[in-house]
Design a protein that fits this description.
Blueprint lengths: L6 H9 L12 H10 L5 E5 L5 H8 L3 E5 L3 H14 L4 E3 L13 E7 L7 H12 E12 L2 H4 L16 H7 L4 E14 L3 E13 L3
Parallel strand pairs: 1-2, 1-4, 2-3, 4-5
Antiparallel strand pairs: 5-7, 6-7
Helix pairs in contact: 1-4, 3-4
This protein binds S-adenosylmethionine.
């Protein structure tokens, strides 16, 4: 099944397992940078939050957190993880762009490994910018083409066209101030789905005031 047709059904199949495909701990980049970037009462939108590891961690930090996810199985697992951790989280079962996401409402958008074909990619990125208040930040991590060129088994989509590069992100986030934009090889330890050396790009982009 292609992700283009229905990301919800595509990811339902992947998340329909007893364990958490990408673990239950937050992405290392998110955990590293988000507390420094936000006030304690910030509003955070986790887009494509999967099984909720990042959203639930954000809620645990005290941020008012919303997880948006197209997979119904993912949404159930997000709620289950939030209950287990004893945190409150808002969920939106939808894909981006979503009418349920209010414009200029969030202090941060967390966008971790959300790889989609064009033109969906640009539409998602545009809608993430719209969701941010002026001064708000997007924290993004994704795989680069090197992940496939280096034949890494540590995750990511099969095709080079779905990957991110500096040029692609500069284009999609041309209206934003790019505070961090770096390609690097990192060691992933994120459940069975992302484990081992990986070629990624990390971005912090701020919406001008
Ligand atoms: C590789 S998983 C990453 C999940 C999560 N961000 C994490 O890092 O654990 C990609 C996620 O992107 C979501 N996704 C795909 N298309 C989307 C869209 N148009 N809007 C929002 N999320 C989408 C999928 O449902 C899936 O949960």
């Amino acid at each position: 099944m292609a992700q283009t047709t229905d990301p919800g059904a595509f990811w339902d199949e992947k998340f329909d397992r007893p364990d958490y495909r990408y673990g239950t701990e937050p992405n290392a980049f998110v955990a590293d940078v988000l507390p420094e970037l936000l006030e304690h009462d910030a509003r955070v939108l986790c887009v494509g939050d999967g099984e909720g590891r990042n959203g639930v961690w954000c809620a645990g930090q005290g941020f008012e957190t919303t997880s948006l996810e197209p997979s119904a199985v993912g949404i159930e697992k997000i709620k289950r993880l939030a209950d287990k951790e004893g945190v409150k989280i808002n969920t939106i079962h939808d894909r981006m762009p979503s009418d349920e996401v209010q414009d200029q409402h969030f202090d941060a958008v967390v966008l971790i490994f959300v790889h989609t074909p064009e033109p969906m990619r640009q539409a998602i990125h545009e809608s993430c910018v719209k969701a941010l208040k002026p001064g708000g930040v997007i924290v993004l991590e994704g795989f680069t083409p090197d992940q496939r060129r280096n034949d890494r088994p540590s995750g990511g989509p099969p095709s080079l066209e779905l990957m991110f590069s500096v040029d692609i992100l500069r284009h999609d986030f041309a209206t934003m101030d790019l505070e961090t934009l770096t390609e690097q090889t990192v060691q992933l330890d994120e459940g069975p789905g992302h484990r081992g050396p990986a070629d990624v790009i990390r971005m912090i982009a701020r919406k001008p005031v």
